[in-house]
Amino acid sequence: MQVALIDYGSGNLASAAKALARAAGETGHQIVTTARPEDVLAAERVVLPGVGAFADCMKGLCAVPGMREALTEKVFKGGAPFLGICVGMQLMASVGREFGDNAGLDWIEGEVVPLAPSDPSLKIPHMGWNELKIIKSHPLLDGLDGANAYFVHSFQFKPKGDAVLATTEYGGTITAAVRRDNLAGTQFHPEKSQAAGLRLLANFLSWKP
């Protein structure tokens, strides 16, 4: 049982791979960090990290020959369990509004917009530990209501419909986790969120959409 951790030049790959490997101790999954579309097609499930600007991450993903097509085939059409982390989650949106409007994967309808805290003393980027509030029960978030997770971001995903799974507060309510069918994503970084992050990754590895 392989998990493909996508290497497209944007993401905290070493930390994510280490955290996934720890979480896989009980499930027996093999974590494969890869830029090869064939590894994505052969994997049981897929993780897409992301750090930086939306447009740069989308450009980097599309620059890997065959990767976007493999993700579409395996995840969007094939139904493989998928986890997007931080900008990796945001890339599922229809559009990102950072440095202009940039098309996303359009897997979950919605937009990525700047954070706009109501309290002007709150700094951007939002960086640090925040409490999760679960909006809808989901296997991915089992045992995590009220847990604290680590965030580093200046933009948030605002999906249409009922895709939001969890929120947090930072001068207003912001999206912390989303889902649609076999797709899921977290704005926070599980690989930096200690016990809560490992719990989420273990939940993902055992999740059967």
Structure explained in plain terms:
The protein has 209 residues and is α/β, with parallel strands linked by helices. The chain has a single domain, classed as 3-Layer(aba) Sandwich (Rossmann fold), CATH 3.40.50.880. The protein has helices at residues 13-23, 37-42, 54-63, 67-77, 87-90, 194-206, and strands spanning 2-6, 30-34, 45-48, 82-85, 95-96, 102-103, 110-114, 126-131, 133-134, 148-153, 155-159, 164-169, 173-180, 183-186. It has an eight-stranded mixed sheet, sandwiched between helices. Strand 13 (173-180) and strand 14 form a beta hairpin. Helix 1 crosses helix 6. The mean pLDDT is 96.
Notable characteristics:
single chain; 209 residues; alpha/beta; Rossmann fold; 8-stranded mixed sheet; 14 strands; globular
DSSP strand tally: 14
Q: Segments where pLDDT lies below 50 for 5+ residues? A: none
Q: Tell me the β content.
A: 25-35%
- Give the class-level CATH name: Alpha Beta
Domains (count): 1
> Which secondary-structure class do the elements indicate?
alpha/beta
H/E series, N to C?
EHEHEHHEHEEEEEEEEEEH
Spatially, the strands of the biggest sheet line up as 2-1-3-4-14-13-12-9
Which fold name is given in CATH as the topology? Answer: Rossmann fold
Show the helix and strand layout:
Layout: E1 2-6, H1 13-23, E2 30-34, H2 37-42, E3 45-48, H3 54-63, H4 67-77, E4 82-85, H5 87-90, E5 95-96, E6 102-103, E7 110-114, E8 126-131, E9 133-134, E10 148-153, E11 155-159, E12 164-169, E13 173-180, E14 183-186, H6 194-206
